[in-house]
């Protein structure tokens, strides 16, 4: 091994036996340079230095960065985890895990329209941000005079009007403002196909287990969501 190569290995490697720093020494007996353990010249072998992340995982950061650092970093990592636990982590349509930039984008978008991503006010649906039903109710409750929202099962006439097939679920959401009924309504539908479609990934399960178990409630929520979307325009907060 060349001298320059040894000097480079001092930076990238440590003693394989004790983990100490390496030094390049002159072996006068054989009149050559060789790499040796800085602590005990009889030690044999070198290994690659671990990264700070690896050292953190092994609980050795204090030795690298000073007393207390290991604990501080672990506490910070824990807080970061908790912070992200309350944020949307997957696209609700495709279940694709969101990247950090996308999560940050959702948080920024929520703030822009006076909502809070930590409270479940927003979600990503096919890669685009949407306000959830909780978000719309939050905005509704912040109005000087909030709408009162009610849901009911669609009538036979409404089922005919909205082309609802036998076995499908259909709910209607209605709103009142100062005891006056508003003309706008919301319609929520769950089809039998959607309710009963099997999971492609897990045999014996349904693709949408919540819809399968609670189709009526899901139709109601969709009706509420559509109505709230119509009634409460999103505004950018200055
Ligand atoms: Zn050693």
- Our measurement of the CA-to-CA distance between the termini, rounded to an integer number of angstroms, reads 65 Å
- When the domains are counted, the total is 3
Q: Give the strand order, joined by hyphens, for the main sheet.
A: 7-8-9
**Ligand roster:** zinc ion
Note the overall shape.
elongated
**Percent of sequence in beta strands:** 15-25%
Radius of gyration: 31 Å
What does this structure look like?
The chain is of the alpha+beta class and 238 residues long. It folds into three domains: 3-49, no CATH class; 88-131, no CATH class; 144-238, no CATH class. It contains ten helices and nine strands. The protein has helices at residues 3-12, 52-57, 61-65, 69-85, 100-112, 133-142, 156-161, 192-196, 209-213, 215-231; strands at residues 13-15, 22-27, 32-37, 46-48, 122-125, 128-131, 148-153, 169-177, 180-190. α6 (133-142) packs across α10 (215-231). It is elongated and about 105 Å long. The mean pLDDT is 86. Bound molecules: zinc ion.
């Amino acid at each position: 091994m060349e001298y320059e190569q040894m000097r480079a290995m001092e930076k990238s490697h440590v003693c394989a036996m004790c983990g100490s720093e390496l030094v390049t020494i002159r072996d006068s007996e054989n009149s050559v340079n060789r790499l040796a353990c800085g602590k005990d010249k009889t030690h044999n072998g070198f290994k690659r230095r671990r990264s700070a992340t690896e050292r953190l995982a092994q609980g050795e950061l204090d030795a690298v960065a000073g007393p207390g650092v290991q604990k501080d970093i672990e506490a910070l990592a824990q807080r970061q985890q908790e912070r992200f636990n309350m944020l949307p982590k997957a696209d609700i349509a495709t279940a694709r895990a969101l990247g950090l930039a996308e999560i940050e984008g959702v948080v920024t978008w929520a703030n822009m329209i006076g909502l809070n991503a930590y409270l479940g006010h927003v979600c990503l649906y096919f890669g685009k941000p949407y306000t959830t039903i909780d978000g719309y109710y939050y905005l509704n409750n912040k109005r000087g005079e909030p709408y009162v929202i009610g849901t009911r099962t669609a009538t036979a006439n409404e089922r005919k009007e909205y082309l609802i097939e036998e076995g499908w679920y259909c709910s209607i959401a209605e709103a009142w403002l100062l005891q006056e009924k508003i003309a706008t309504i919301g319609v929520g539908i769950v089809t039998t196909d959607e309710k009963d479609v099997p999971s492609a990934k897990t045999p014996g399960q349904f693709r949408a287990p919540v819809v399968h178990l609670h189709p009526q409630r899901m139709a109601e929520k969709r009706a509420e969501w559509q109505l709230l979307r119509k009634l409460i325009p999103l505004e950018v907060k200055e």
